[in-house]
Write a structure and sequence with these properties.
By secondary structure, this protein is of the alpha/beta class. Helices cover 31% and strands 24% of the residues. It has one domain: Maf protein (Alpha-Beta Complex). Helix 4 packs across helix 5. The longest helix has 18 residues. The chain is globular.
């Protein structure tokens, strides 16, 4: 099988590193939007769900480049906040607001809540658009709680406040390898890897 090029529709270098690790046993090369000179492309993510937004991104870049394109839309869902930040996770409280501020804001909103009242989950919907018009989708979810303070240096985004009771740590405190095994993105892209293998081999 020839090495396939896959464009990952993200400007987030950390995300590309995570996905590259998950797909390392496949004969593919990953290219980011920056690698393709497309970092300034503005795609309107007007879907109502994580999956719809992932499909919008993947199809737009696939149509633009004629290459296989993979995109994900992921975010933090906090039950006590009515599901916020949800699909607005990246632009919650303003697109340019730091995650340090966002994380502290969420912790403050949950003051006085304990245990199950702090329930939250990370959701990742992954879509892969192929030049033949076919779109593959997969979803991964990891359940946890909002921590009482930010902890850990390994993650990014909301990782420092996403506490895993069974590990006694946040997702920013576990190793990248461990995170890929259990994270929402790890789960979604592991499922996608199998779908893609079948598709490319078929």
């Amino acid at each position: 099988m020839d090495t396939k090029k896959i464009i990952v529709a993200t400007g987030n270098a950390n995300k590309v590193i995570e996905i590259r690790e998950i797909l390392k046993d496949m004969d593919v090369t990953l290219s980011s939007l920056k690698d393709e000179g497309l970092q300034d492309v503005d795609i309107e993510e007007n879907g109502k769900t994580f999956e719809e937004n992932a499909i919008i991104k993947a199809k737009a870049i696939c149509e633009m480049t004629g290459e296989i394109c993979m995109a994900d839309d992921s975010g933090l869902v906090v039950d006590a906040l009515g599901g916020e930040p949800g699909i607005y996770s990246a632009r919650y409280l303003g697109r340019d607001t730091s995650y340090d501020y966002k994380n502290n804001y969420i912790i403050k909103q949950l003051e006085g809540k304990e245990g199950a009242e702090r329930s939250a989950r990370f959701v990742c919907a992954c879509a892969c658009a192929l030049p033949n018009g076919k779109v593959l989708t997969a979803e991964g979810v990891i359940e946890g709680q909002i921590g009482f303070e930010q902890k850990g240096e390994n993650g990014f985004g909301y990782d420092p406040i996403f506490f895993l009771p069974e590990k006694g740590k946040t997702t920013a405190e576990i190793s990248p390898e461990e995170k890929n095994e259990i994270s929402h993105r790890g789960r979604a892209f592991t499922k996608m890897r199998e779908l893609l293998k079948d598709e490319l081999q078929g």
